[in-house]
Amino acid sequence: MTSKAEIQSRVFLQARNITKYPLDLEEVVKTLQMSKHVKIIYDYTLDDEIDAYLYESKRRLYIVVNGHRPPERQRFTIAHEIGHLYIGHEPVRINGWDMHEDYQEDEANDFAAGLLMPASRVYTLAEHHRNVLQLLEVVKKYFDVSLAAAAKRITNLDIFRGAILLKDRAGQNTYFNYRTSDFYDDNEYRFYHEKKLPGNKLLHVLVAETYRHVVRWEIG
C-alpha cells in the first residue's frame, strides 16, 4: 500500500516538473516554498551518531549534513530532511535538541525514497532488467543511492517476491535484511544469486517469484 508520504513526494515532483535523475538536490531545495530560503551545508565536526539536522537563522533554513558520511547516504539524508520541511513536521525539544517523533521519521524516510527513486521510474527499470541482482545495480547507479536504499526500495515496491540481504562472508553479521511483504520463509526461494562486495561482505538475493507487481496502471 502506497504511503501518504510517498504520494506527497509524487505531488512535490509533479508540481515542480522535476524529471531528471539522479536528482540535483541543491536545485531541489531551491524549489521549496518555505518562509525562508533553504540551504544545504556540510559539517565535518558533527558527532558520529548524527546524520543531519535542521537549523533556522533569522534569514535562512539550513539542512546541516554530516560531511563524513558517504555521498549516497548524504543524498538520502538531505531528501529525508526535505521531507520533514515539505510535510511540515514540527519537532519536539528533547535534551536540548529538536527531535522528530518516530512516525515523522518514518514519513520522512518514505518521502525521501519516493523523491529519490519514484516508483514509476523503478518499475520502468524493472521492465528492462529482469534479473534482481542486475536491477539492484541499475537502480543504485541511476538514482545515485546506496546499496541499502536501492535494496529497500525494490523490496518495498514488491517488484518481486523474495529478499535481499547483506552479510559478512562468514554469515555472522547482517548489515541489512529487506524482504517483500509476503515472503516469510527463506526456504521458499526458487532462485538464488550472490555477489562478493568489498569489506568482506556478501550480497544475497533470494527470489521466489519475479515481477508480478509491475503493472501498467502504477506507472506514471
What does this structure look like?
By secondary structure, the chain is α+β, with helices and mostly antiparallel strands. It folds into two domains: 4-116, Arc Repressor Mutant, subunit A (Orthogonal Bundle); 119-218, no CATH class. Helices cover 37% and strands 26% of the residues. The chain contains seven helices and nine strands, in the order ααβββαββααααββββ. Helix 6 (132-143) crosses helix 7 (147-156). The longest helix has 17 residues, at 71-87. The chain is globular, with a radius of gyration of 18 Å.
- Shape by Cα distribution: globular
User: Stretches where pLDDT falls below 50 for ≥5 residues?
Assistant: 215-220
Widest β-sheet, arrangement of strands: 7-6-9-8
Can you give the mean pLDDT?
90
What kind of sheet is the major sheet?
4 strands, antiparallel
Number of helices: 7
The share of residues in extended strands comes to 25-35%
Structural class: alpha+beta
Q: Roughly what percent helix? A: 25-40%
Number of domains: 2
**Helix and strand pattern:** HHEEEHEEHHHHEEEE
- Classified by CATH, the class of the largest domain is Mainly Alpha
Radius of gyration equals 18 Å
Number of strands: 9
CATH architecture label of the largest domain? Orthogonal Bundle
> N-to-C terminal Cα separation, in Å?
16 Å
